[in-house]
Amino acid sequence: MLLKQMLETPTTSPNLVVFDPFQAFDRDALIREVVGLANADVEGPRHILFGVNPGGMNGNIVGMADDAVGQLKRAHRLISSLVEPVLDLAFIFDCINGKLVGALEIDGCDFGPYFLAQDLSDELCRGACWIRRDRELLAVERSELLNHKAPAAEPAVVAPTVSPEEVRLVIGFNDDPSCEFIEADVPDTSDPPFAEEGGDTKKSATFTQTLRDKVGTMTTQILRMKRQDRSSNKDDADDAGNEIAKAARQHYFYEERAVKVELCIRNDCDIDVSDLRAELGFPRLPGFDVADRVYRSPFDKRSDGQISQRGYPKVDHRKDAIFVRTTVGDLPARHTQQLISTPLRLAIGPEALGKKVAMQYVLRGPDGRKLDSGRLKIRLSQTQADALADDATEVADLNMA
Predict the structure, then answer these.
(1) How far apart are the first and last CA of the chain?
(2) What pLDDT is recorded for position 267?
(3) Is the model's pTM score more than 0.70?
(4) Which residues contact residue 248 at a Cβ distance below 8 angstroms, ignoring those fewer than 6 apart?
(5) For residue 395, what pLDDT is reported?
(6) CA distances from 28 to 15, 33, 243, 320, 363 (A)
(7) Phi/psi of residue 38, each to 5°?
(8) What local confidence, expressed as pLDDT, does residue 30 receive?
(9) Does 69 lie in the same domain as 86?
(10) Rg (CA), the chain
């Protein structure tokens, strides 16, 4: 649904919510609405509209506050880390009659029920769940939605309760659950895009030529930015140029030259395990990082909605460690499957070359019960044959009990 089409009838419904532009931005309310719309019993994408008077027609475009875009982008990152299963979220912005309006598109809502996987506050706690019915947002139990989605003709199957003593679960690299160690070849990262700009594109007198050299093509957006650079809006053009250079470098380190790690999981016992989740922990090291999403190139002409983040795990960067969380779901007895459908991206700098990095993991069942745990190791191979090897294994000091 195009933004202008939504503006024709901007009224709250099961697949459209209009945020009151006269109220202060409410992050918690936005989180509840995203979950509620994702769980709504409607087909197709759902939207949250900003900058429009609820119930008004085209003449009632109010516009968004100056700081609204930044607040929404921060909320987008938070929602992506809180809500499970993974949703496809994308912003749409447009300037209509000189006023900025926007919409948050929520797509890929076929794998619910959706709920909060982490505690945020007393009201927004782990397991919290909402649904939008007609024009009401209702707090519901996740089990209620599970029963609602189950086929009426089939009786609900209650999984047997399992204890950690009965369970043997293992994680390994690639498609081998017994593989606990790999040596990863680290691509050369010595020539990132725009490195000569020192992170500040406005110092270059040949920014347009630099873009041509690095990318080989020139988009309409870049040409428009360069024209702005000759006008009175030079600061805006500088900011846009810096954002493009930053995005290009992020794509280079976290996607193009990243070490992509695939993991599998095996249920080594004779009992089916349901509602299974995995938590991985990496140490914080100089020159070592885990991408928090699949980074796109600023020169990729596909829309955000076309570059799906579905299957990439939640990544939480903390002071002492990097945590990765993913939902496995049901794992039948003696069954092996991918742990993460999209490979984990590791960004490796020169400081981490030659090191062994330990990845600790914990597997949890219903109600967060710890079922099993273990440790895998990755050696980050150096590109130079005569480089000194460091056999010490770097391990995170993790509280994953």
Answers:
(1) 46
(2) 95
(3) no
(4) 193, 194, 214, 215, 297, 298, 299
(5) 58
(6) 19, 9, 28, 27, 29
(7) -60, -35
(8) 92
(9) yes
(10) 24
Structural domain for 331, as ranges:
164-186+259-394
* pLDDT tens per residue, range 247-256: 888 989 999 9
Q: Are residues 173 and 290 in the same domain?
A: yes
For residues 139 and 124, give the distance between their C-alpha atoms in angstroms, rounded to a whole number: 11
pLDDT of 189 above 90: no
64 and 129 in a common domain: yes
Q: Are residues 36 and 118 in the same domain?
A: yes
Higher local confidence (pLDDT), 172 or 134: 172
Choosing from 256, 271, 303, the residue where a domain stops is 256
How buried is 78 (Cβ within 10 angstroms: 0-12 exposed, 13-18 middle, 19+ buried)? middle
Question: Do 347 and 294 touch, CB atoms closer than 8 A?
Answer: no
Residues 218 and 334 in one domain: no
Lowest mean pLDDT among 99-108, 203-212, 276-285, 341-350: 203-212
pLDDT per residue over 117-159, tens digit each? 888 888 888 889 999 987 888 999 888 887 665 444 444 444 4
CB 326 within 8 A of CB 85: no
We report the CATH number of the domain holding residue 282 as: 2.60.40.10
Residue 51 lies in a domain: yes
Q: Report the number of distinct structural domains present in the chain.
A: 3
> How is residue 293 written in tokens?
């999403």
The last residue of one of the domains, among 256, 279, 298, is: 256
